[in-house]
């Protein structure tokens, strides 16, 4: 026994050991360890803790409870995936790595009122999570989608990646059906990536990824009167179930082609796709694995600017009125709606004002809600020159101008050095985020 600062250290250590042995393992695991970060839990699984603890942390009951607690916590951060676009305009250009960063949730001032500044404003630091190298390359153009801490990454090829940033698990899915329209869309529509959907099938207790694919029917034709190319094609849809080591399963044929410029959204009920040629939505029901055509909100339709999101478990639709620089955000709780109807309600409306003496303002042309906190919603917006994050109040369906902007994201490299990603050649993919222990290769939940 030795003395330190007048205390009997040996007795203290003995008392702590006695106390630890008096606490039941179940209480330590489900009331203490369950609240640790995923990084700390990974250390517990790899280091010298008892076999019972390691087995419990890896078990389905622990992973499921950890996921429930993560869902219930107020959001404290988001996930950002920066991608530098090829300056020469090659949509299929690749990089050998992809990085994931935690973006702190910066709440706006109580009375925020701002306009899009002509240049950069305050710099926001991000926290490096991890970087994954991929020898075959990952296209610089991607469209990520998110569910329960997992991220599905669609690329400019048929390759689809899935990642759990918290556990650093990163996998490539087996090849699906080849999309024969990919090259045609890149050349004539300016669309480098077709999105994929990621969601949780509560009836089968499995995470699924879904994608459209297109098979050519004849040759493409050019309409000189309209200056547009057209291609007859067969439309297909397939689903991949994570964790089973299986393959893509072709579903029934969808009733319409999907819109190629907006990402799909998965709610508790099903996966929603934008219809390509009509102001409607196509829903793939997860329970019955069947399609239905459902209405958009009673508003206008902007093929290039409208988008969808999952906001607090509800389906969110954003209509972009490009002429008035106004965005209207609608919500519906599809879980309680009828089989072929959605009851939409207008949640809030934002109108952007620009400085009258600015000859070339950074006009916002796209906005997608990411998360909500209280009566405010944080959205990722894209301007003519720079992306930004903005807050808006959600209590009024009247046009509002009170928004608070964040420009200038600073990222960290694996070696600790930092860089600004603020040029026109950078894209910031900002997603909701919380930690999850869900495995991509096994059923551990």
TrEMBL record:
This is F-box domain-containing protein. SUPFAM superfamilies: F-box domain. Residues 142-336 form the F-box associated beta-propeller type domain. InterPro entries: F-box-assoc_dom_typ3, F-box-assoc_interact_dom, F-box-like_dom_sf, F-box_dom, SCF_F-box_component. It comes from Urochloa decumbens. Residues 26-58 form the F-box domain.
């Amino acid at each position: 026994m030795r003395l330190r600062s007048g205390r009997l250290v040996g007795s203290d250590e003995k008392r702590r050991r006695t106390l630890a042995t008096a606490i039941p393992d179940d209480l330590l695991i489900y009331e203490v360890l369950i609240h640790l970060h995923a990084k700390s839990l990974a250390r517990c699984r790899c280091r010298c803790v008892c076999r019972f603890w390691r087995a419990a942390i890896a078990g389905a009951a622990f992973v499921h409870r950890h996921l429930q607690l993560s869902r219930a916590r107020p959001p404290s951060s988001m996930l950002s995936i920066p991608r530098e676009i090829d300056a020469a305009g090659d949509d299929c250009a690749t990089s050998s790595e992809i990085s994931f960063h935690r973006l702190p949730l910066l709440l706006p001032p109580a009375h925020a009122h701002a306009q899009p500044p002509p240049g950069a404003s305050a710099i926001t630091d991000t926290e490096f999570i991890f970087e994954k190298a991929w020898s075959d390359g990952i296209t610089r153009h991607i469209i990520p989608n998110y569910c329960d801490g997992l991220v599905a990454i669609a690329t400019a090829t048929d390759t689809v990646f899935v990642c759990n940033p918290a556990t650093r698990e990163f996998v490539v899915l087996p090849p699906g059906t080849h999309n024969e329209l990919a090259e045609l869309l890149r050349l004539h529509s300016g669309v480098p990536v077709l999105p994929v959907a990621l969601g949780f099938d509560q009836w089968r207790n499995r995470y699924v990824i879904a994608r459209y694919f297109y098979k050519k029917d004849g040759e493409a034709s050019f309409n000189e009167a309209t200056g547009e190319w057209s291609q007859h094609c067969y439309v297909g849809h397939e689903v991949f179930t994570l964790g089973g080591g299986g393959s893509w399963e072709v579903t029934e044929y969808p009733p319409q082609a999907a819109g190629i410029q907006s990402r799909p959204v998965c709610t508790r009920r099903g996966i929603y796709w934008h219809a390509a040629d009509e102001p409607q939505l196509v829903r793939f029901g997860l329970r019955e694995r069947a399609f239905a055509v459902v209405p958009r909100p009673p508003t206008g339709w902007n093929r290039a600017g409208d988008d969808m999101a999952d906001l607090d478990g509800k389906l969110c639709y954003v209509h972009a009125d490009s002429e008035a620089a106004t965005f209207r955000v609608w919500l519906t709780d599809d879980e309680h709606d009828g089989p072929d109807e959605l009851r939409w309600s207008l949640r809030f409306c934002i109108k952007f004002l620009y400085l009258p003496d600015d000859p070339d303002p950074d006009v916002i042309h796209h906005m997608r809600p990411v998360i909500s906190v209280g009566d405010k919603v944080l959205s990722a917006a894209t301007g003519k020159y720079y992306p930004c994050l903005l807050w808006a109040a959600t209590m009024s369906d009247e046009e509002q101008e009170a928004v608070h902007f964040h420009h200038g994201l600073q990222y960290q490299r694996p070696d600790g050095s930092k860089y600004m990603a603020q040029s026109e050649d950078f894209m910031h993919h900002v997603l909701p985020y919380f930690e999850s222990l869900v495995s991509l290769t096994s059923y551990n939940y």
